[in-house]
Amino acid sequence: MFSSSGELTPREVAIQLLARREYSRAELACKLQQKSFQPDEITVCLDTLAEQNLQSDERFAESFIRSRIFRGQGVIRIKGELRQRGVDQETLRTALASVEEREAVDWFELACDTLRRRFSTPGDTPKERAKRERFLATRGFDFEQIRYALSCL
């Protein structure tokens, strides 16, 4: 498991990380840089892992999207977080479409369910309604979804 010097190789470190959860290529590159591996070593390692299907940005994105939907997060926030994790626009779009189709995601209903878990009424005052709107907006729902969710309570 160790290289001749007793240190872990970039591949071994990456495999240990991937054994716990999916990572984007960019996240793995960052983790390996933190371990002081050389950029060329990291690139070769990540290319090999991708070729062997041990690391996949699309699989990472799909897993990430499902977990965030389960947490009651909207598409705006999910897309933003995936971009922060280095997932490119095309991979993001493909993964989102795949999960939406497979899981029959209804963002409007998800906004309703998310709001219901936190609040029992749409709010009696403009201040209370604004609080609910901010809650959903920070969760990543758009204006139409927020308006729909408030009408559900």
Briefly characterize the structure.
Helices cover 71% and strands 0% of the residues. The chain is mostly helical and 153 residues long.
**Arithmetic mean pLDDT:** 95
- CATH topology type of the largest domain: Arc Repressor Mutant, subunit A
The geometry reads as elongated
Summing up helix and strand content along with how strands pair, one would put the structural category as mainly alpha
Function: Modulates RecA activity.
Pfam families: RecX_HTH1 (PF21982), RecX_HTH2 (PF02631), RecX_HTH3 (PF21981)
Domain RecX first three-helical: 11-48
InterPro entries: RecX_HTH_1st (IPR053926), RecX_HTH_2nd (IPR053924), RecX_HTH_3rd (IPR053925), Regulatory_RecX (IPR003783), WH-like_DNA-bd_sf (IPR036388)
What does this structure look like?
This protein is mainly alpha-helical and 153 residues long. It has 3 domains: 10-51, Orthogonal Bundle (Arc Repressor Mutant, subunit A); 57-103, Arc Repressor Mutant, subunit A (Orthogonal Bundle); 107-152, Arc Repressor Mutant, subunit A, CATH 1.10.10. 71% of the residues lie in helices and 0% in strands. It has helices at residues 10-20, 25-34, 39-51, 57-70, 75-84, 89-103, 107-118, 126-138, 143-152. It is elongated and about 65 Å long. The chain starts with 9 loop residues before the first helix and ends with a helix. 26% of the residues are buried. The model has no long low-confidence stretch (mean pLDDT 95).
